[in-house]
Amino acid sequence: MIHVLNGDAIQTAWTEARLPGHALICRECLVDGPLVAVDEPARWKLRAAWLGNAFPKAPILYQRDVQPLFQQLMGLPPAEEVVFWFENDLFCQVNFWYLLSLLPAETRAFRAFPVEVKGTNPWGGFGTNSPADLQTAFSGRVAMSPEDVQLGTALWNAFLEDDRESLAQLGNTSSKAFQQLPAVVQAQLDRQPDASGLNRIERFVLAQLQAGTSSFQEVFRAFCEQEGIYGFGDTQLEPVYQRFAKSA
């Protein structure tokens, strides 16, 4: 059994949970940056080069720490069991959709969901979960049908091609393997500008600045609390903040 974790942050708690199988880690951020390429190796090269614009060592690290996961998933033996530990926010979901698109047809896929912890941000995900919570999440994992995997692949293709009409239609699909799907898809669609010329994220940042919230740390905290559905880190939000802060 293989477990695909949504990032390094969950690894310690997952290890302490002592679950059967071994873990692989997804370290991509496909919600951001260029994606279109002729095939997967070309896509990985494109992504590594793009990340290298901000982090000079990224191309080397991508080949070492990111790309192997994709290659291993594509080369899984028949009927291998894979448990995906991914959250419901857009950042996690786009990565999840992509990974599903790589699976061989015979793969037995499962989805483990975060255990909701009372009094915490509902979008806090696995970051609020203890090893015991992860054991509960594993016990309650959802078996994904071939139709579920096909849905994930279709969502990825619509996202990749910026096919908003197809994405909106797919977002209305009911599946136990995809919680909050309509809201997540709408969050992606809202990344397009409205009549004001600004998208949902830009409008939020501008409103915060106009309300007197000046520091990026404060804006980012408010964004995580009110727009946690995006699952963005500071790398995704800070360029938006900087653009509006300069003109404020």
Give a written overview of the molecule.
This protein has eleven helices and five strands, in the order βαβααβαβαβαααααα. The chain is of the alpha/beta class and 248 residues long. The protein has a five-stranded mixed sheet, with helices on one face. The longest helix has 17 residues, at 58-74. The model has no long low-confidence stretch (mean pLDDT 95).
Please summarize the sheet with the most strands: 5 strands, mixed
Model regions low in confidence, pLDDT < 50 over at least 5 residues:
none
Rg from C-alpha positions?
Answer: 18 Å
Overall pLDDT metric: 95
Task: Order the strands across the largest sheet as they lie in space.
Answer: 2-1-3-4-5
Structural shape? globular
Number of helical stretches of at least 4 residues: 11
Quick structural gist:
The protein is of the alpha/beta class and 248 residues long. 51% of the residues lie in helices and 8% in strands. A five-stranded mixed sheet has the order 2-1-3-4-5, with helices on one face.
